[in-house]
């Protein structure tokens, strides 16, 4: 097993991963809240006086499905970048996070094929010699 140390995290890379993860989690919560609001809105439609509340419930439910993932994604992006900056500063003082990695490759890897060798004598031009 090889021990490796993570000395630096790419700020934009961490921000993108955090933003996408946050948007995915936000989509799950947005669907849950949206379905609850739409169900409440649909239940209000059966009452005579609940037409306005029904509209709010249905529109609010659809808005939750869109807005919650957007907010979670945006804040995930921002806080992922902040975390990467804090990690990079802290890793400068303590040396980074140590990880133990193990290779899972099975079998033998063949060496790469031989590459052609460059011969400087074959490409040398004497002054006044025109190759073309």
Kindly provide the radius of gyration, computed on alpha-carbon positions and rounded to a whole number of angstroms.
30 Å
**Helix and strand composition category:** mainly alpha
Largest sheet: 2 strands, antiparallel
Low-confidence segments, given as residue ranges, are none
Lateral strand order in the biggest sheet: 1-2
Helix content: 55-70%
Tell me briefly what this model is.
It contains three helices and two strands. It has 132 residues and is mostly helical. The chain has a domain of 83 residues.
List the helices and strands and how they pair.
Blueprint (H helix, E strand, L loop, with lengths): L1 E5 L4 H35 L5 H44 L2 E5 L18 H4 L9
Antiparallel strand pairs: 1-2
Describe the structure.
The protein is mainly α and 132 residues long. The protein has a domain at 16-98. The chain has three helices and two strands; from the N terminus they run βααβα. The protein has helices at 11-45, 51-94, 120-123, and strands at residues 2-6, 97-101. α1 packs antiparallel against α2. The chain is elongated and about 100 Å long. The mean pLDDT is 84.
């Amino acid at each position: 097993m090889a021990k490796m140390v993570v000395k630096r995290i790419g700020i934009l890379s961490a921000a993108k991963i955090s933003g996408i993860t946050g948007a995915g989690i936000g989509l799950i919560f947005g669907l849950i809240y949206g379905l609850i609001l739409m169900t409440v809105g649909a239940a209000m439609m059966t009452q005579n006086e609940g037409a306005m509340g029904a509209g709010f419930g249905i529109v609010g439910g659809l808005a939750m499905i869109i807005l919650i993932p957007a907010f979670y994604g945006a804040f995930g992006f921002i806080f992922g970048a902040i975390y990467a900056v804090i990690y990079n500063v802290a890793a400068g003082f303590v040396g980074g996070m140590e990880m133990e990695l193990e290779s899972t490759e099975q079998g033998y890897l063949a060496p790469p094929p031989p590459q052609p060798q460059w011969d400087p004598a074959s490409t040398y031009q004497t002054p006044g010699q025109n190759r073309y």
